[in-house]
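[audit] Reproducing an earlier prediction to check determinism. Same input, same settings, fresh worker. If the C-alpha coordinates differ from the archived copy the diff job will pick it up downstream; this log only records the rerun itself.
[audit] input (243 residues):
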Amino acid sequence: MVLGLDPLAIAILATTVVVGATVQTLVGLGVGLVAAPVTALVAPEMMPGTLLWLAAAMPLVTLLREHDNIDWRGLGWSIPARIPGTAVGVAVVALVSERELGVAVGLMVLAAVVLTLKTVRLPINRTTLVTAGFVSGVTGTATSIGGPPLALLYQHREARQIRSTLAVYFVLGAVLSLAGLAVGDALQTRELLLALLLAPCLVGGFAVSTVLRRWVDPDRVRYGVLAVCGLSALVLMVRSLTG
Protein backbone atom coordinates (compact mmCIF):
# COMPACT_ATOMS: atom_id res chain seq x y z
CA MET A 1 0.00 0.00 0.00
CA VAL A 2 1.22 3.49 -0.92
CA LEU A 3 -0.57 6.46 0.68
CA GLY A 4 -3.36 4.02 1.56
CA LEU A 5 -3.81 2.94 -2.08
CA ASP A 6 -2.97 -0.43 -3.59
CA PRO A 7 -0.53 -0.59 -6.53
CA LEU A 8 -3.29 -1.36 -9.05
CA ALA A 9 -5.18 1.81 -8.12
CA ILE A 10 -2.01 3.88 -8.50
CA ALA A 11 -1.28 2.24 -11.87
CA ILE A 12 -4.80 3.08 -13.08
CA LEU A 13 -4.45 6.68 -11.89
CA ALA A 14 -1.04 7.01 -13.55
CA THR A 15 -2.42 5.76 -16.87
CA THR A 16 -5.37 8.16 -16.82
CA VAL A 17 -3.11 11.09 -15.96
CA VAL A 18 -0.85 10.28 -18.92
CA VAL A 19 -3.89 10.12 -21.22
CA GLY A 20 -5.34 13.32 -19.77
CA ALA A 21 -2.03 15.17 -20.05
CA THR A 22 -1.66 14.03 -23.65
CA VAL A 23 -5.08 15.34 -24.58
CA GLN A 24 -4.65 18.59 -22.66
CA THR A 25 -1.41 19.34 -24.47
CA LEU A 26 -3.16 18.73 -27.81
CA VAL A 27 -6.47 20.53 -27.30
CA GLY A 28 -6.12 22.70 -24.18
CA LEU A 29 -7.92 20.67 -21.52
CA GLY A 30 -8.17 17.03 -20.55
CA VAL A 31 -6.49 16.14 -17.25
CA GLY A 32 -9.60 16.83 -15.19
CA LEU A 33 -12.05 15.41 -17.70
CA VAL A 34 -10.17 12.14 -18.05
CA ALA A 35 -8.80 11.64 -14.55
CA ALA A 36 -11.58 12.97 -12.31
CA PRO A 37 -14.15 10.21 -12.99
CA VAL A 38 -11.50 7.51 -12.64
CA THR A 39 -10.05 9.03 -9.47
CA ALA A 40 -13.51 9.32 -7.95
CA LEU A 41 -14.00 5.63 -8.73
CA VAL A 42 -10.72 4.16 -7.46
CA ALA A 43 -9.62 6.75 -4.88
CA PRO A 44 -12.51 9.06 -3.94
CA GLU A 45 -10.74 10.10 -0.74
CA MET A 46 -8.12 11.85 -2.90
CA MET A 47 -10.71 14.11 -4.56
CA PRO A 48 -10.52 16.93 -5.42
CA GLY A 49 -7.13 17.91 -4.00
CA THR A 50 -4.86 15.59 -5.98
CA LEU A 51 -6.26 16.63 -9.34
CA LEU A 52 -6.16 20.31 -8.41
CA TRP A 53 -2.44 20.01 -7.66
CA LEU A 54 -1.96 18.33 -11.03
CA ALA A 55 -4.18 20.94 -12.69
CA ALA A 56 -1.89 23.65 -11.34
CA ALA A 57 1.25 21.91 -12.61
CA MET A 58 0.17 20.67 -16.06
CA PRO A 59 -0.36 24.12 -17.66
CA LEU A 60 3.19 25.12 -16.72
CA VAL A 61 4.42 22.38 -19.04
CA THR A 62 2.18 23.73 -21.81
CA LEU A 63 3.34 27.32 -21.25
CA LEU A 64 6.97 26.31 -21.69
CA ARG A 65 6.14 25.63 -25.34
CA GLU A 66 3.30 28.08 -26.01
CA HIS A 67 3.04 31.41 -24.20
CA ASP A 68 1.93 33.73 -26.97
CA ASN A 69 -1.58 34.79 -28.08
CA ILE A 70 -2.87 34.69 -24.49
CA ASP A 71 -6.18 36.53 -24.17
CA TRP A 72 -5.30 38.61 -21.11
CA ARG A 73 -8.46 40.70 -21.45
CA GLY A 74 -10.65 37.61 -21.18
CA LEU A 75 -8.66 36.36 -18.21
CA GLY A 76 -9.08 39.77 -16.58
CA TRP A 77 -12.84 39.16 -16.41
CA SER A 78 -12.94 35.42 -15.76
CA ILE A 79 -10.27 35.05 -13.05
CA PRO A 80 -11.80 37.53 -10.52
CA ALA A 81 -15.19 35.88 -11.03
CA ARG A 82 -13.65 32.56 -10.02
CA ILE A 83 -13.03 33.83 -6.47
CA PRO A 84 -16.68 33.82 -5.29
CA GLY A 85 -17.20 30.61 -7.26
CA THR A 86 -14.33 29.07 -5.31
CA ALA A 87 -16.03 29.98 -2.02
CA VAL A 88 -19.18 28.20 -3.15
CA GLY A 89 -17.12 25.20 -4.24
CA VAL A 90 -15.47 24.96 -0.81
CA ALA A 91 -18.92 24.94 0.80
CA VAL A 92 -20.00 22.13 -1.55
CA VAL A 93 -16.97 20.01 -0.58
CA ALA A 94 -17.72 20.58 3.12
CA LEU A 95 -21.40 19.76 2.86
CA VAL A 96 -21.68 16.83 0.45
CA SER A 97 -20.66 13.20 0.87
CA GLU A 98 -18.21 11.27 -1.32
CA ARG A 99 -21.22 9.60 -2.95
CA GLU A 100 -22.84 12.92 -3.79
CA LEU A 101 -19.53 14.29 -5.00
CA GLY A 102 -19.20 11.28 -7.30
CA VAL A 103 -22.57 12.04 -8.85
CA ALA A 104 -21.58 15.71 -9.19
CA VAL A 105 -18.36 14.79 -11.00
CA GLY A 106 -20.25 12.44 -13.31
CA LEU A 107 -22.87 15.05 -14.17
CA MET A 108 -20.21 17.70 -14.78
CA VAL A 109 -18.29 15.47 -17.17
CA LEU A 110 -21.44 14.40 -19.05
CA ALA A 111 -22.57 18.01 -19.38
CA ALA A 112 -19.16 19.00 -20.74
CA VAL A 113 -19.20 16.11 -23.22
CA VAL A 114 -22.71 16.90 -24.49
CA LEU A 115 -22.03 20.62 -24.86
CA THR A 116 -18.73 19.99 -26.60
CA LEU A 117 -20.26 17.51 -29.05
CA LYS A 118 -23.01 19.98 -29.90
CA THR A 119 -20.33 22.68 -30.33
CA VAL A 120 -22.45 25.35 -28.71
CA ARG A 121 -21.20 28.73 -29.89
CA LEU A 122 -21.33 31.46 -27.27
CA PRO A 123 -20.13 35.06 -27.62
CA ILE A 124 -17.03 36.06 -25.65
CA ASN A 125 -18.00 39.17 -23.70
CA ARG A 126 -17.99 40.44 -20.12
CA THR A 127 -21.17 38.62 -19.17
CA THR A 128 -20.15 35.21 -20.53
CA LEU A 129 -16.60 35.52 -19.19
CA VAL A 130 -17.77 36.41 -15.67
CA THR A 131 -20.37 33.64 -15.74
CA ALA A 132 -17.85 31.09 -16.97
CA GLY A 133 -15.35 32.17 -14.33
CA PHE A 134 -17.88 31.82 -11.51
CA VAL A 135 -19.21 28.44 -12.65
CA SER A 136 -15.67 27.23 -13.19
CA GLY A 137 -14.77 28.27 -9.65
CA VAL A 138 -17.61 26.18 -8.22
CA THR A 139 -17.05 23.07 -10.33
CA GLY A 140 -13.26 23.32 -10.33
CA THR A 141 -13.06 23.51 -6.54
CA ALA A 142 -15.74 20.91 -5.83
CA THR A 143 -14.91 18.38 -8.54
CA SER A 144 -11.51 19.49 -9.96
CA ILE A 145 -13.21 19.96 -13.37
CA GLY A 146 -13.14 23.68 -14.00
CA GLY A 147 -12.08 23.87 -17.62
CA PRO A 148 -15.25 23.24 -19.65
CA PRO A 149 -17.07 26.55 -18.93
CA LEU A 150 -14.20 28.64 -20.30
CA ALA A 151 -13.21 26.12 -22.96
CA LEU A 152 -16.71 26.28 -24.44
CA LEU A 153 -16.29 30.03 -24.93
CA TYR A 154 -12.91 29.74 -26.62
CA GLN A 155 -13.43 26.55 -28.64
CA HIS A 156 -13.71 28.42 -31.93
CA ARG A 157 -10.59 30.55 -31.39
CA GLU A 158 -7.17 29.74 -32.90
CA ALA A 159 -5.71 26.58 -31.35
CA ARG A 160 -2.61 28.21 -29.87
CA GLN A 161 -4.69 30.90 -28.17
CA ILE A 162 -7.03 28.29 -26.73
CA ARG A 163 -4.17 26.25 -25.26
CA SER A 164 -2.17 29.18 -23.90
CA THR A 165 -5.16 31.10 -22.48
CA LEU A 166 -6.59 28.00 -20.81
CA ALA A 167 -3.15 27.15 -19.44
CA VAL A 168 -2.87 30.49 -17.63
CA TYR A 169 -6.44 30.18 -16.40
CA PHE A 170 -5.88 26.66 -15.08
CA VAL A 171 -2.77 27.66 -13.13
CA LEU A 172 -4.39 30.67 -11.47
CA GLY A 173 -7.74 28.93 -11.01
CA ALA A 174 -6.24 25.81 -9.44
CA VAL A 175 -4.18 27.93 -7.04
CA LEU A 176 -7.34 29.79 -5.98
CA SER A 177 -9.22 26.53 -5.46
CA LEU A 178 -6.37 24.98 -3.47
CA ALA A 179 -6.14 28.08 -1.29
CA GLY A 180 -9.89 28.00 -0.70
CA LEU A 181 -9.82 24.32 0.26
CA ALA A 182 -6.88 24.95 2.59
CA VAL A 183 -8.73 27.77 4.34
CA GLY A 184 -11.79 25.53 4.62
CA ASP A 185 -9.60 22.75 6.10
CA ALA A 186 -10.60 20.46 3.23
CA LEU A 187 -7.11 19.78 1.87
CA GLN A 188 -5.05 16.77 2.89
CA THR A 189 -1.28 16.32 2.80
CA ARG A 190 -1.58 12.90 1.18
CA GLU A 191 -3.43 14.48 -1.76
CA LEU A 192 -0.31 16.54 -2.45
CA LEU A 193 1.93 13.49 -1.99
CA LEU A 194 -0.12 11.50 -4.50
CA ALA A 195 0.05 14.42 -6.95
CA LEU A 196 3.85 14.48 -6.59
CA LEU A 197 3.91 10.73 -7.22
CA LEU A 198 1.84 11.18 -10.39
CA ALA A 199 3.63 14.33 -11.60
CA PRO A 200 6.03 12.43 -13.92
CA CYS A 201 2.93 11.22 -15.77
CA LEU A 202 2.30 14.82 -16.83
CA VAL A 203 5.69 14.93 -18.50
CA GLY A 204 4.97 11.55 -20.07
CA GLY A 205 1.73 12.84 -21.54
CA PHE A 206 3.51 15.93 -22.85
CA ALA A 207 6.10 13.72 -24.56
CA VAL A 208 3.42 11.50 -26.11
CA SER A 209 1.54 14.54 -27.42
CA THR A 210 4.71 15.88 -29.04
CA VAL A 211 4.83 12.74 -31.17
CA LEU A 212 1.08 12.52 -31.81
CA ARG A 213 0.55 16.12 -32.88
CA ARG A 214 2.75 15.53 -35.95
CA TRP A 215 0.29 13.14 -37.54
CA VAL A 216 -2.92 12.98 -35.51
CA ASP A 217 -5.78 15.43 -35.94
CA PRO A 218 -6.51 16.83 -32.45
CA ASP A 219 -10.26 16.73 -33.19
CA ARG A 220 -10.13 12.95 -33.62
CA VAL A 221 -8.25 12.59 -30.36
CA ARG A 222 -10.79 14.84 -28.66
CA TYR A 223 -13.79 12.84 -29.84
CA GLY A 224 -12.21 9.57 -28.77
CA VAL A 225 -11.44 10.90 -25.33
CA LEU A 226 -14.89 12.44 -24.99
CA ALA A 227 -16.32 8.96 -25.52
CA VAL A 228 -14.06 7.56 -22.79
CA CYS A 229 -14.93 10.45 -20.49
CA GLY A 230 -18.64 9.92 -21.03
CA LEU A 231 -18.37 6.20 -20.30
CA SER A 232 -16.29 6.85 -17.18
CA ALA A 233 -18.81 9.40 -15.96
CA LEU A 234 -21.71 6.99 -16.47
CA VAL A 235 -19.89 4.21 -14.60
CA LEU A 236 -19.07 6.63 -11.77
CA MET A 237 -22.66 7.84 -11.49
CA VAL A 238 -24.08 4.28 -11.47
CA ARG A 239 -21.59 3.22 -8.80
CA SER A 240 -22.28 6.31 -6.70
CA LEU A 241 -26.05 5.95 -6.94
CA THR A 242 -26.09 2.22 -6.22
CA GLY A 243 -23.35 2.59 -3.62
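[audit] rerun output stored. Observation attached for the diff report: Residues 7-242 form one domain.
[audit] end
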